[in-house]
Amino acid sequence: QVQLVESGGGSVQPGGSLRLSCAASGSIGNIVARGWYRQAPGKQRELVAVIMSGLSTVYADSVKGRFTISRGNAQNTVNLQMNGLEPEDTAVYYCNLRTTRFGYWGQGTQVTVSS
Q: What is the pLDDT of residues 29-58, one digit of tens each?
C-alpha cells in the first residue's frame, strides 16, 4: 500500500519561507510526475507546481519566481521551497505523485501566512 507523507507546513509571517517535503512509502512504480497542489477554504484545489520525470517544471502564475519544486534525493520524494510567502498562499498543501496508471495523494499539510 502506497502512502505519501508531507512535512514542513506551519505558520509564517508575510515574506517568510517554508520548505515542504513529501515522501512515499511502498512500491509506487515508475513516477512520471511529482506535484504540489493547494486548497484554500471555499476554493477548489489548484496546481501549485509540478516536475516531470524529465525534470521540466510547471508553476502556477501566482507562485512563479517565489516557489521552487525539486525532486528529493530519494526516488519517491518531492520538495517545494516557498519564499516570499503571501497571505494568499494560505492553504492546505497536498503532494501528488503520478505514475502511468495511478495518482497518489498525501493527507495535506497546512500553510498559514499571517502577520
A: 889 999 999 999 999 999 999 999 888 999
